[in-house]
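thought: user wants a sequence for this fold. calling inverse folding tool.
action: design(structure=
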């Protein structure tokens, strides 16, 4: 089953290839500001429409990922690797999807601020 979501204005539309089972809520300096939670899929399996015409990228820190947001409404939609290598993945902001989907997914807490590890639930 696929799931469709979009930024607030609809300029960037996302289609997940399947129902995610788990999501991640991170507290790193960027994610705690963006929100989330994040779900992950193999790079190229998430259909992203309106990108790159309607998006702007932000690159921070170690310059391995670009965080993408809509240039019209500002909603962060996803992140993607800067360099494509086998096994790379997308991180998709689940906040752009139906609240029922968000509520159905188990969310794990990740300490990206200090320990760089999952916190026990």
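)
observation: tool returned 121 residues.
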């Amino acid at each position: 089953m696929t799931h469709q979501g979009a930024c607030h204005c609809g300029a960037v539309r996302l289609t997940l290839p399947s129902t995610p089972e788990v999501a991640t809520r991170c507290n790193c300096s960027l994610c705690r500001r963006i929100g989330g939670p994040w779900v992950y899929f193999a790079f190229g399996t998430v259909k992203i429409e309106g990108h790159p015409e309607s998006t702007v990228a932000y690159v921070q820190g170690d310059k391995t990922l670009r965080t993408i947001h809509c240039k019209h409404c500002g909603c962060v939609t996803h992140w993607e690797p800067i360099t494509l290598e086998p096994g790379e993945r997308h991180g998709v902001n689940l906040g752009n999807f139906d609240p029922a989907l968000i509520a159905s997914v188990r969310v794990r807490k990740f300490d990206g601020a200090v320990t760089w590890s999952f916190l026990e639930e």
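thought: summarizing for user.
answer: Here is the designed sequence. The mean pLDDT is 94.
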